[in-house]
Amino acid sequence: MATGSTLIESLSQTANPTILVCTLLCSLALLLFWIRSAGRSRLPPSPWRLPIIGNLHQLTDLPHKGLYALSQKYGPIMLMRFGSVPFCVISSGELAREVTKTHDAVFSDRAATKASRMLFPGGDDLLFAPENKFWRLTKKLCVSELLNVRRVQSFQTIRVEEVARMVETIRSSNRCEIDLSNLFLQLSSAVFSRVVLGVTGKNDVKGSLSVQGIQAISEISSFEDFVPALSWVDRLTGLHTRLQKTSQSIHAFLDQIIEHRAEILRSGNGGDEAQRSDEKCFVDIILELKQKDMIDLNLTHSDIRSILVDMFIAGLGAYAMIMEWAMTLLAKNPKMMKRVQDEVRGIVGRKSEIHKQDTDRMEYMKCVIKETLRLHAPALTVRQASRAVTVGGFELPAKVTALINIYAIHRDPKAWVRPLEFLPERFMNTSYNFKGQDEVYFPFGMGRRICPGIDLAVAELDYALANVLCWFDWELPEGVAPDDIDMRGTSSVTSRKLLPLRLVPVAIPTPPPST
């Protein structure tokens, strides 16, 4: 066979210079094409996409389900474009661990959205700010001062009072059908309003609406987020104006709260309102630490406001969502409802109140919460790469957003037996927890961006769910069978039910208070 040099020499003797030059140029072009193709082959597989919108048309009404379906065809790692923004979709626990553990420092940021830029005009917050010194010190403040175990226990009085109000509301329904989804959202709003701001939502309609507005605005996506060149569409549709007005209203409400609590602290008259250890809200704690120079941060008024908004975004919707789905799944599975109620009532006995030492013993109820979060955790977790990085053997460019599909990972048949079924007992006598230590189960995230409020969330869930299960039997509305319960979710970040859960409570006799 002729070598390359022999072939060129032969051509030079038999062909004119034009043919020779064309041959060399074609060979060079083929070589460059091969090199570029080889480079591209190191990128993750990609579904076909359309101009301008990229892969947006493939997301379906429920993005986590649409991406799960695509991963069955293209594999556990896909490179997609939503508009002009590159996303790497991760659908396996092994790759999720690689992103959030092995390359945690690279994927430590989150891309800001139009809504987040309006909610956090200074760009300094826990959820969307890049990892820098301010972010690390703010997280340290939240973990060590606001969300530690001792602080969570100090909110027990608030927990008891607000759950008692909810129980009384249910009792007063007189065995009529009630909207549990709305009731749980009201409970969540009331608890977080008192814990974070020190205000009672029941007596402050504007405050209650502002608190729920924080959650709503944080879940809005805009054209600007995916196709920056089309940001004018947000103004044309009125979205820009709505986001602006809502953000300004939220800022004004929170500024008023911060100034009110600061005035109480300055006056030294907080004995009845701000200084009781069991009534100190997050605002009080932050202002007191700042006054005493006990934090390594020069927090501005805007910084404090951003921390408060973070607390509501992270906790408000998720708390109500988990309660809603837990009761939905139990109503759909009557045998499991009876089993968990038998456990709760057996532990409470003839006491008229439920205590923390009671909920600590409710193992099956804890399994119900874990299984609920396996099936209905916030579906998607996002991280942005600060530089180019290799994941799963594939090259990812800088600024790509890793989108971890928890929905897919929590349904992986390689990790879970009968993954589509509600089986709380699968968690009995296992080491699964909420700390992000296992690559196949991490409902609150993994790595340095894991939710810092896990202890608070678990305490609220345990106590509220135990009361709902202990003091009431639950019946479906007339003509509705368990198989008729609508299980569709929404496309929101917190994946709430599409249709509210409506059940009929049947109050059981409450033992008289022990003397």
Automatic annotation (TrEMBL):
Its cofactor is heme. SUPFAM superfamilies: Cytochrome P450. GO terms for molecular function: heme binding; iron ion binding; monooxygenase activity; oxidoreductase activity, acting on paired donors, with incorporation or reduction of molecular oxygen. Keywords: Heme, Iron, Membrane, Metal-binding, Monooxygenase, Oxidoreductase, Transmembrane, Transmembrane helix. Heme binds at C451. The chain crosses the membrane at residues 15-35, 307-331. This is Cytochrome P450.
